Amino acid sequence: MKNQFTGPLGRAILPMLCIVHVMAISAIGVETTVQNDSVIDGSTALICPCFAVGESAAAWLTSPCNGNIVALQIFWRSATGGTPPSLESTLSVFDTAVFPTPGGILPGLFGPAQLIGPVLTDGVINEFRFTDENQTIPLVVPVTINQEFVVSLEFLNASTVFTPAPVLDGDGCQTGKNTIFAIPGGWSDACALGVSGDWFIRAVVDCDPTEACCFSSTQSCANLLPADCITATGVPQGSGTDCNSFICFPNGACCNPDGTCDGLVDQADCISSGGVFQGDGTSCNGTCPQPGGACCLPSGACLFLEEANCLPIPDAQWAGFGTTCDDLDGDGVADDCEVLIGVPT
């Protein structure tokens, strides 16, 4: 058999004449499924038993990113369910031309983007990831962001009320998104022919891993591939970052080592000066941690305390930021306290 579906993403569903209720539709991994239809779990969908041999149903789709089309999906359903697998003519990915007529078949990395003899199973979302019957040649079709392409199924069997056909949603037909190749007549807008919804004909696009790219000269951000970011003299921000949520040049409060605070400081400048950045948009509000220092007692003893905790001690003197209780000369008084309290004789 040719081009078996890789596995059901849907389950068997109960029919109502040519209306079906959809159950258990799921997505795949982190890949992006591109679709015009609005069919979801539990929604009602329609079947169009209206195709003759040699006719086609097609969806005009738009890529959300730079990447590769790696799978095609068709929800194939009969009114009664349970019909035998159906061998159809071709499943193709076309370039666009002047709507409603597609352009030529798009080239894939391993050959033309066309499956000869796809086998569709009744009652499930049929997914195709290979272009050959032995499932050894993967479907990999490069696309760019906002590129429009057409996924088309050509029928080898006529679809009637007793046989399966592609499912469509019942939310109304979107002009410019659905076409039919009719005999006679050729390519036409499906909406103009009375089709009442959008075809459940989808594509799965594996998007290239772009990330936030920051440009210091313009204080701006663009989502680019890391290599493209570097070529454009930007700085890649790492896997998973995105300009919609990543802040390239945060400014906010900076807590200095001496306990003081500077407001509206660039994060990089704060860190380079030894400070602790408090976050984008933060302001100085008296919460910077205060440093410890030598708290010198009249007895010659030394406690390492913040100034606020040293001064309440009777006759204690705080030696200042950066001082310690170290007694390196071994005279029994912290070195930083010797000037303040003297050295016992």
Care to give the gist of this entry?
It contains 4 helices and 29 strands. The chain has 345 residues and is mainly beta.
Structure, described:
Residues 1-19 and 23-29 have low confidence and may be disordered. Helix content is 6%, strand content 37%. It contains four helices and 29 strands. It has helices spanning 226-231, 267-272, 307-310, 338-341; strands at residues 15-16, 19-21, 32-34, 44-47, 56-62, 67-77, 86-87, 90-96, 102-105, 107-108, 111-112, 114-116, 119-120, 124-128, 141-143, 148-154, 165-169, 178-182, 186-189, 201-207, 211-215, 220-224, 235-236, 251-255, 261-266, 276-277, 292-296, 302-306, 317-321. By secondary structure, it is mainly β. Strands 1, 2, 3, 4, 6, 14, 15, 17 and 20 form a nine-stranded antiparallel beta sheet that branches. Strands 5, 8, 9, 12, 16, 18 and 19 form a seven-stranded antiparallel beta sheet that branches.
Q: Top keywords for this entry?
A:
disordered N terminus, 7-stranded antiparallel beta sheet, 9-stranded antiparallel beta sheet, 29 strands, mainly beta
Roughly what percent helix? Answer: under 10%
Tertiary shape: rod-shaped
Secondary-structure content class:
mainly beta
Q: Which stretches are low in confidence, meaning pLDDT under 50 for 5 or more residues running?
A: 1-19, 23-29
Beta strand count: 29
What kind of sheet is the major sheet?
A: 9 strands, antiparallel
By DSSP (H or I, 4+ residues per run), the number of helices equals: 4
Strand content: 35-45%
- What is the mean predicted local confidence, pLDDT? 88
